[in-house]
Amino acid sequence: MIMTVTKIPGAVVAEQFPFQDSRGAFGRLFCEKSLTEPLGSRHIVQINHSRTSAVGAVRGMHFQHAPHAEMKMVRCLKGRVWDVVLDLRANSPTFLQWHAEELSPESAKMLVIPEGCAHGFQVLEADSELLYLHTAFYEPKAEGAVRFDDPLVSIAWPLPVTDLSQRDREHALLSTDFAGLYV
Length: 183
Fold this sequence. Notes:
The protein has one domain (2-17, 29-169): Jelly Rolls. It has 2 helices and 13 strands. It has helices at 36-39, 166-169; strands spanning 2-5, 12-15, 19-21, 24-26, 46-52, 58-64, 72-78, 81-87, 98-103, 109-113, 117-123, 128-134, 143-145. The longest helix has 4 residues, at 36-39.
């Protein structure tokens, strides 16, 4: 895997180059040894899968509060998505800045989202599927979110938002005195 750093500290794009021949392709989706640098001493404890049908649908921007903060590694298994990481860490040089990557099976990219950052995505191709690898177990009481259209962060979604869960629609906007997360 080749790691490419983003402007968000700790957020990297891990890119693999699958073996291809006349039969198709073979690629490693996860290798702890190859991901030693971003993982550090963390371990993957949970793997989730999502499927989103509608083009333009948005899921996010989600995170977990400390002490249940998690690193996520996100890969697209089917379709195409515009995947976003938003830095919410207090004292970060990129506080309230975001970075996005287009993910697809063909690109073989995985976005690594560090603790203290929110994650979300927009579907660019119908019936897109994502695989999420987490370094912490899901804890409902630790859920946090930033609304997809929060003017304080101004995420520039590439398409009009066509589908959004009621829960994601009702997240409060960040206050102008939001000081960030401590992880």
